Amino acid sequence: MENLINLVNKLQRACTALGDFGEGSSLPTLWDALPTIAVVGGQSSGKSSVLESVVGKDFLPRGSGIVTRRPLVLQLHRIDDGREYAEFAHQPRKRYTDFGAVRKEIADETDRETGRSKQISSVPIYLSIYSPNVVNLTLIDLPGLTKVAVEGQSESIVADIENMVRSYIEKPNCIILAVSPANQDLATSDAIKIAREVDPQGERTFGVLTKIDLMDKGTDAVDMLEGRSYKLKFPWIGVVNRSQADINKSVDMIAARKREREYFSTTPEYKHLASKMGSEHLGKVLSKHLETVIKSRIPGLQSLINKTIVELESELSRLGKPIATDAGGKLYMIMEICRAFDQTFKEHLDGIRPGGDKVYGVFDNQLPAALKRLQFDKQLSMENVRKLITEADGYQPHLIAPEQGYRRLIESTLITIKGPAEAAVDTVHSILKDLVHKSINETAELKQYPSLRAEVMNAACDSLDKMRNESKRATIQLVDMECSYLTVDFFRKLPQDIEKGGNPTHSIFDRYNDSYLRRIGSNVLSYIHMVVGTLRHSIPKSVVYCQVREAKRSLLDHFFTELGAKEGKQLAKLLDEDPAIMQRRMDLAKRLELYKSAQAEVDAVAWAK
C-alpha cells in the first residue's frame, strides 16, 4: 500500500517540474486528478505546529502575520533506518540534515518567487522528508486564512488567500484537514467555515482541534471531539502542540509527543478518547485514508491519463513539428512542407481531390461554345467577299480561281479564333491559381508559417503566369500555322469553276456575279469549319502540355533553386511561426511528457496490485 502514496508523490513532483499546478489553464491538468490532503486553518490556529508534530521535526518558518505565503507540498517517506534528511524539488541533488536550514530555505525560496514583499504565490514548494519516525503521507500546507491585511500587503490579500485555499479544497479529490483552536468558538472557525462551503456534508473533511490544553478552566472539548458541536463523517482528532515556551526552550518532538500522550491519557475528560487523539494517531489515520482514496481512484486515473495522451498527441500533430535549429534542418523542413503542398496540388489535378475536372470543363464546354458563337457571317458577307477578292486580284483579275482572295478571306476569318483560344488559356490559368490557393489552405504545415505561405503562393503564381504566357504563345501559334499553310486537298476536292469570272472591261465591282461570290464564301466557310474542328482538339492539347503538365512537373522549381541559395537567417524568416503556437507546442510537449511518465508509474502500481 505504501507504493500508492509514493505513486502520488512522484506524480505531484512531476507535475510541478513540468508546470502543472492545477490552476485554470487551456492545458489538461493531472494535478487536479490526484488525491491530496490540504491543511487549512486561520492564522494562529496551530496549523504549523500540527504539521511539525506529524513530522516530528521543527522545520517550518515562524513569525507574526502571514508566514506561509506559498503552498508547501510536504511529502513524508518512511525509511527503515538511517539518518533523517530532507530534499527540495528545486534542489534535487542537495540533502538537508539540519532542519533549521530547511526552515531557512523555505523562507528563501518563498522570497525568490514573491520577492521580499508579503505577497502570496500559488506556485508550490516541494519538500520531501525521509525518516523512520514518519508515516507515508503527503500534505499540502496552505497560507493561513486571515481577516485583515497587514502593512506591506495589498488590500486584496484576504480574498487572495481565501481564493487560493478554495481552489485547492473545492476539488473533489482533495481531503480537507481543517485545523481549529479549541479555545475559540467553533462557529467562528475560519477552517470550518470554508470547508463547509465546499464540503457541506463533511464527507471529505477531517477536523483537528488544537490548543485543547489552553482552554479555560471548567471547560472542555469533549462535545467538539465527539462531533456534537459540528458533525463530520470522520471523527475529530485533538492534538496538544508545544507551547511557545517549549519552542523557545527547543523541546524536541519526541518529548512533545510523549507529553501529548500523557495529557490525553491522564486528563479525566479525555481518557476515553486517548487512543484516538494526538498527532501520531492523526498521521496514521490520514495515511490510511489517503491510501484507500488513491486505491479507489486508480482505474479512473488510468482512463483519464490514456484519454488525455491521445488528445495531446492529436493536438501536437495538428500543430506540426517544431522548427529545426540549424540551417540544413530549416531548409529540409521548408522543402518537405513545399513537397506536401505540391502533392496536394497534384492530387487536385489528378482527381484524387476535387477541382481538376474544371479544366476538362473548359475544353468540353467553354471552348466549343465560344467557337460556335463566332460570327463568321460578318467576314463572309457578300460585300466583304467581293471586297477581298477584288482587292487581292489587283489590276489583273485571276485566271482560274481567286487564290489570293481565298487566302485573305481565310486568314481574316481564322484570326477570330484567337479570342476563344486565349480565353481558354486564361480560364485554365484561373483554375490552376484557384487550385494553388486551395492546396495552400489544405497544407496544414503552411498555416504555421505566414511568410513561407506567402512566398510559396507568390512563387506558384509566378510560375503559372509564365506557363500561361508560353501557353498563349503556343496556342496562338496553332492558329497562325493554320493561316500560314492551307490544306490543299480540301480545295482540290472542290468542283472546278469552268467560267473565267466575267468581263475585264466591266467595273471591278461587277466583275463577278453574286452566285459565284456566294460559292466562294461557302467554300471558305466549309474550310473554316474544318479548321475549327481541328483546333478544337489541338488547342486543349497545347494548353494541357504548356500549363497543366508543366504545373505538375515544375510548379516550384524556380523557388527551390532560390531556396538553395538562402542563408540561415533568410530561411528563419520564412519559418516565422506565431509565437503563441510555438509556446503552445512547447507546453503540450511538456504536458505529454508528464502524462506518459504518469502512465508508466500508474500502470506499474496497477500491475503490482
UniProtKB/TrEMBL annotation:
Family matches, as Pfam families: Dynamin_M (PF01031), Dynamin_N (PF00350), GED (PF02212)
Entry's localization field: Cytoplasm, Cytoskeleton, Phragmoplast
All copies of domain Dynamin-type G, residue ranges: 31-299
Main location class: cytoplasm
One GO CC term, this protein: microtubule
Domain GED residues, every copy: 517-609
UniProt keyword GTP-binding present: yes
The entry's keywords: Cytoplasm, Cytoskeleton, GTP-binding, Hydrolase, Microtubule, Motor protein, Nucleotide-binding
GO molecular function, one term: GTP binding
Entry-linked PANTHER family: DYNAMIN (PTHR11566), PHRAGMOPLASTIN DRP1A (PTHR11566:SF159)
Family: Belongs to the TRAFAC class dynamin-like GTPase superfamily. Dynamin/Fzo/YdjA family.
Name used for this protein in its record: Dynamin central domain-containing protein
Lineage of the organism: Eukaryota, Viridiplantae, Streptophyta, Embryophyta, Tracheophyta
